[in-house]
Backbone:
């Protein structure tokens, strides 16, 4: 029987490959789809918040955002009273890319969900939320260091 960690990694790899195959056809690179998805929902956020939400290092988020800005998917601006942080939002081109990616995410979700009943799907989501919480950076690093 396959272990839980193996099944989680295998599923993540399959989903990531499928999403990135379609994202690359749209001219997007690794990391950009999840930032587009986040900004589509959040409207605007600073780099630190984006990095935390997307589970990537802040420096990595910075280089992804730089490429996204060069591609005119996002723009950054300072808010009055806060010169330390740049706030990121989608351009019109970025919003269109985010909408296109949302269609890919929806198709992926639909395909994955087709293997499950509505009850099984809800149970899976709840289980994955619990696992994510337990394995969050602070808990995981602390528990695996023992």
Residues:
């Amino acid at each position: 029987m396959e272990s839980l960690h193996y099944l989680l990694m295998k599923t993540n790899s399959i989903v990531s490959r499928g999403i990135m195959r379609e994202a690359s056809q749209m001219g997007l690179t690794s990391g950009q789809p999840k930032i587009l998805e986040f900004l589509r929902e959040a409207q605007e956020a600073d780099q630190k918040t984006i990095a935390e939400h997307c589970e990537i290092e802040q420096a990595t988020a910075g280089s992804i955002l730089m490429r996204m800005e060069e591609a005119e998917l996002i723009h950054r601006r300072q808010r009055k009273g806060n010169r330390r942080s740049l706030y990121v939002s989608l351009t019109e081109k970025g919003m269109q890319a985010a909408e296109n990616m949302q269609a890919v995410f929806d198709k992926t979700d639909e395909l994955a969900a087709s293997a499950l009943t509505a009850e099984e799907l809800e149970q899976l989501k709840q289980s994955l939320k619990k696992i994510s919480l337990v394995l969050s950076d602070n808990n995981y690093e602390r528990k695996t260091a023992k």
